[in-house]
Design brief:
The chain has 498 residues and is of the alpha+beta class. It contains 13 helices and 22 strands. α1 (2-13) packs across α6 and α5 (116-129) crosses α8.
Length: 498
Amino acid sequence: MQATMAKLNQVITGGDQYAPANANNFVSWMTPGIPFAPQDFAFLEKGYNGKTAEETRLLIQSAADFAQFADLVPDPTAVYNMQAGQTLDRNSQERLSSIYSNILRFAKVTNLEPTETEKKKLDKFRKLLYTTKKVTDIITDEVREEVVEGPVKQAYNEKMQAYEDAALLYNTKRLNAMTSDMKEAVIDFSLNASTYRNKVKAAMNAWQTAGYKNQVEDMEAYIAQVTGRSMSAWMAELRDTLDKAQFTDSSSNMSFFPARLYPANFIKKSWPKYSFSQNEVTTHLKESTTKWNVDGGLNLGLWSVGAKADGTHTRSNETFSSNDFSMEFELCQVKILRPWLGTELFSCRGWKLDNTWSFGDRLLSPKGEPLLSNGGTPPKGSFIAYSTSAIFARNLKVKFNEEAWQKSAIRNQIGAGANVGWGPFRIGGGFSTDNSQKDFHSLVTKQGFECPDIQLIGFVNRLVGVCPNTDPNAKFDEEPAAKPATKSKTKAKAAVAR
């Protein structure tokens, strides 16, 4: 399993010069995966307005459930902790929305106002990136504003997703040709490598032209630069956007900040197929699944066996030996969209935390000011990254040596309906939430098992770097004004002026 995850990590994060890895990304795995049904994502296409009040409640409930997973703050040093198998392990119990909300409300910001020309340009860029639409609540008839991506940002996300799909396909074909024992994979890449590369290039060209890649990134950089001099007005807008985005799930009375997936109909699309076999283990076993080579407690090969899906965390670990192994499954990586989250804030250099800040772990900069992340390798802090993509798997099929499998205790556990996981994959049982229980279907075969259902197995996360990364020349309201010129200097300047 550790070798399998190493190969998957290469596929997802990048490979050679044609589909290079992003140095600011890393993958964190669920241990084990979280099951989902197709109807759990109906809100992506229907929104929150069902035909009836009951359907509307179910749509909002499903959106609230997924928002909780997407709101977790990852910790790269502990994402493999088996005791935290039903969530991503993290430094604190806080969530992305909580940290972001506290930054907007309590951070100190620079006070140099932008010019009127800059204000107009900022307003134009923000409307291109994000906008609002009016939505009527079918239950209360209340009209509220919902924050959504603007037309330019929508095109950007669409073409970025197409590029990442092409890069995933290319990386998969390349790695299969290098390590797989299937001659078809070798022949396929030998004959069609240029075609797969061209798809990556074409997707990048489309992202740069029809997807406004350079323009969107330039606009976000401009916003960060200008508002870095005076952030008061911008922070007020971000707070307003956050407040407008908040929803409440009436069934649990829980407030949440929506997270959508792109494309909304990803379940209906065909997913790329992945395979892994015994002969690839040696090739990938020594590869690290993270860029920081974290070894503490890392054991993705463990089978985790717990009680039936009743919400408990009791687990035990089983093992068995097999001299034969192969697996295949379908994988889909989809973008997470949060219109309420102004990610450009994290790179903006015009804000800092007050010295009384006590949110999360206490981490200080060389100047003694609070930090959320030190940007190190590995990074430390209560907020080192946020998830940008969700990784789903389905149609998992695994085969072992038949004799070894028939004798294994794990086979009996799956057959009895126990909650069984293997690395980031859920094999049996289900998962309970505050609102419902999600069943997970699996079939025990003579040589292994098959799991057709959808499961969330991990996230792609983006590092925030040093945060806050305050400009040393930034001026804040509490700082004393510059000392007035001395009398002699004043007379000298007057003489020069005359």
